Amino acid sequence: MATVIRLTRMGRKKQPFYRIAVTDSRKRRDGGWIELIGHHNPMVAEKTTVVDNERLDYWLSVGAKMSDRVKKITGR
Predict the structure, then answer these.
(1) CB within 10 Å: which end of the chain, N or C, has fewer?
(2) pLDDT confidence tier of residue 34, bands split at 50, 70 and 90
């Protein structure tokens, strides 16, 4: 199973926020996930991002790959 760390869109129309989720690469964007490791809210004045770095490091150590957007948000 190829695991990917990517964003899932939540919120309502024109007011999105995103969860940072570990999921199987074959699932849809908002499909089932294995674990939620953070969230990102781009709609507030200061864009807030909360990530559980310990779990992020764990998933990277077992071979999960980050999407380009998650790399940019987390600064890794």
Answers:
(1) N
(2) very high
Phi and psi angles of residue 45, each rounded to the nearest 5 degrees, phi first: -55, -50
pLDDT at 76: 80
Q: Please check whether residue 11 lies inside any domain of the structure.
A: yes
Residue with tokens 């953070």: 38
- Domain carrying residue 46: 3-68
CA distance to 15, 38, 42, 43, per residue, from 53 (Å): 26, 9, 20, 23
Domain CATH code at residue 26: 3.30.1320.10
Asked if 36 and 52 count as a contact pair (C-beta separation under 8 A), the reply is: no
Residue 37 lies in a domain: yes
The maximal CA–CA distance of the chain, rounded, in angstroms, is 38
Residue 75 has pLDDT above 90, yes or no: no
